[in-house]
Amino acid sequence: MAYFATVFRLWYKTEIKKMKLIQTINELRAELDVLRREGKTIGLVPTMGALHAGHASLVKRAVAENDVVVVSDFVNPTQFNDKNDLLKYPRTLDADCKLLEACGAAFVFAPSVEEIYPEPDTRQFSYAPLDTVMEGKYRPGHFNGVCQIVSKLFLIVEPTRAYFGEKDFQQLAIIREMVRKYPFNLEIVGCPIVRESDGLALSSRNARLSAEQRVQALQISKALFASCEYAKTHSLAETKLYVEECIAKAEGLRLEYFEIVDGTTLQTVTDWNDSTYIVGCITAFCGEVRLIDNIKYKE
Question: Which pTM does this prediction carry?
Answer without folding.
Answer: 0.91
